[in-house]
C-alpha cells in the first residue's frame, strides 16, 4: 500500500531529507521519498499507519500537510 502526502513548506534538499527521515521513523513505513518540485512525499507501508500519525510527524518538522491520498 502507498500513500501520497501533499506538503507545503519544503524549500530545499535539506527539507526533503528532514521529511523523509521523519517518515521513515514511523513504525509501519517501509520507505519514504519526498519530491521538492512536486511538493509531496510517497510512502510505502508495511502495515497500516494512521494519517494522523503521518501528519503529526511532518508537522513536527515545521511543514504543512495539505492532504494525504491513498494509492
Question: How does this model look, in words?
Answer:
The protein is an alpha+beta fold and 71 residues long. Helices cover 31% and strands 38% of the residues. The chain has helices at residues 13-24, 51-60; strands at 2-8, 29-35, 40-45, 64-70. Strands 2-3-1-4 form a four-stranded antiparallel sheet, with helices on one face. β2 and β3 (40-45) form a beta hairpin. The N and C termini lie close together (7 Å). 23% of the residues are buried.
Q: How helical, in percent, are the residues?
A: 25-40%
Query: The biggest beta sheet, please?
Result: 4 strands, antiparallel
Number of DSSP-assigned strands: 4
Element string (H = helix, E = strand): EHEEHE
Rg computed from alpha carbons, rounded to a whole number of angstroms: 11 Å
Low-confidence stretches: none
The percent range for strand residues is 35-45%
**Count of individual helical segments:** 2
- Widest beta sheet: strand line-up: 2-3-1-4
Protein structure class: alpha+beta
End-to-end separation in angstroms reads: 7 Å
Nearest-integer average pLDDT: 97
Judging from the principal axes of the Cα atoms, what is the shape? globular
Concise overview:
The protein has about 70 residues and is of the alpha+beta class. It has helices spanning about 15-25, 50-60; strands spanning about 1-10, 30-35, 40-45, 65-70.
List keywords for this structure.
single chain, 71 residues, alpha+beta, four-stranded antiparallel sheet, 4 strands, 31% helix, globular
Amino acid at each position: 500500500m502507498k500513500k501520497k502526502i501533499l506538503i507545503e513548506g519544503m524549500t530545499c534538499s535539506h527539507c526533503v531529507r528532514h521529511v523523509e527521515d521523519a517518515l521513515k521513523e514511523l513504525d509501519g513505513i517501509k520507505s519514504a521519498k519526498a519530491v521538492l518540485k512536486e511538493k509531496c512525499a510517497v510512502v510505502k507501508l508495511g502495515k497500516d499507519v494512521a494519517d494522523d500519525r503521518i501528519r503529526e510527524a511532518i508537522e513536527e518538522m515545521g511543514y504543512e500537510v495539505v492532504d494525504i491520498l491513498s494509492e
